[in-house]
Amino acid sequence: MSNAIDISGLNCAYGENTVLKDIGFSVKSGELFIIIGPNGSGKTSLLKTISGNLKFEEGTIKIFGRHINEFSRKSLARSVALVPQNVPTDFPFTVKELVLMGRSPYLGILGLPEKEDFEIAEQSLAFTGAEHLSSRKLDQLSGGERQLVFIARAVCQQTGIILLDEPTASLDLSHQVNIMDLMEKLVEMKGLTVVMVSHDINLAAMYADTLLLLKNGNVISIGTPEDVLTFKVLEEAYGCTIIVDESPLGKVPRITPVPQKYIGGITS
Ligand code: ADP
Q1: 86 is a domain residue
Q2: Measuring CA to CA, which of 16, 164, 211, 261 is 20 to 30 A from 93?
Q3: Which of 32, 59, 30, 64 is nearest to 45 (CA)?
């Protein structure tokens, strides 16, 4: 299968501060690819470079084999959709209007949506299970509902790749699983490539086809959850004591960070 994303020799800086250092990896078409790593390791910056929202100094990013610099803004938006972190919700828009904005890369010079655009927006809301929210105002939604709606906008953009920055952050357990099940559905039913950042390593272990562990702008490890989630690699990356055993679900690693008060009990 061809690659959705190929990155090599990528360096990216904010002024003097280099935050991505000689990064290289590939994302296969149709996989669920999850980026993990400590705070400040460059995860958000990496998503921003892939979505064309952050310029990089050196290296190459190819989207479906084509250099990212060859895309116009509009054509990149037809290939890559981004669901950012902390999405603003103080717009005076309804859910339906927001989702329809996913059609912007396809609209003509007047920017007027046509019948087909309205239909695609409705289908996207239905696919994400958010059609009942269609007439609601954005600022009246719960955190979980808001995430669904922004994912619906990305689906409405009809790209081959969807990037999401911590889509499960601050959601309760059932909403976390709901969002992750939806990620899987995007891959399996729509054949999309999903690249997401997650702080929840256990959730990532249960769903990822491939995991990438970043630290200080470097790729520390990449592979299946079993390959990446070893206690040695995790302890080095996160700088705390970690137990890795098998999840009750079967061949999936389960990660338990060990509180200081238990550490003597484990080592003695
Ligand atoms: P992560 O998503 O892993 O927490 P980020 O990509 O947000 O990491 O940040 C990586 C580094 O880049 C951090 O040191 C952060 O302080 C810095 N950084 C992020 N955004 C900016 C910005 N807009 N301007 C300057 N530095 C930034």
Answers
A1: no
A2: 164
A3: 59
pLDDT at 149 exceeding the cut of 60: yes
Nearest to 161, CA basis, from 83, 70, 45: 83
Q: Let me know whether 72 and 180 are in one domain.
A: yes
Q: Are strands 218-223 and 242-246 parallel, antiparallel or unpaired?
A: unpaired
State pLDDT tens for residues 17-43: 999 999 999 999 999 999 999 999 999
Test site for ligand 1: of 10, 11, 14, 53, most ligand atoms within 8 A of the Cβ: 14
Question: How many domains, the chain?
Answer: 2
Average pLDDT over residues 141-151: 92
pTM over 0.85: yes
Atom of ligand 1 nearest to the CA of 48: 6
pLDDT for 30 = 97
CA-nearest residue, atom 25 of ligand 1: 14
What is the CA(59)–ligand 1 centre distance, in A?
19
Residues near ligand 1 with C-beta < 6 Å?
Answer: 14, 17, 19, 37, 39-45
Residues 189 and 118 in one domain: no
The DSSP bridge pattern shows strands 32-36 and 193-197 to be: parallel
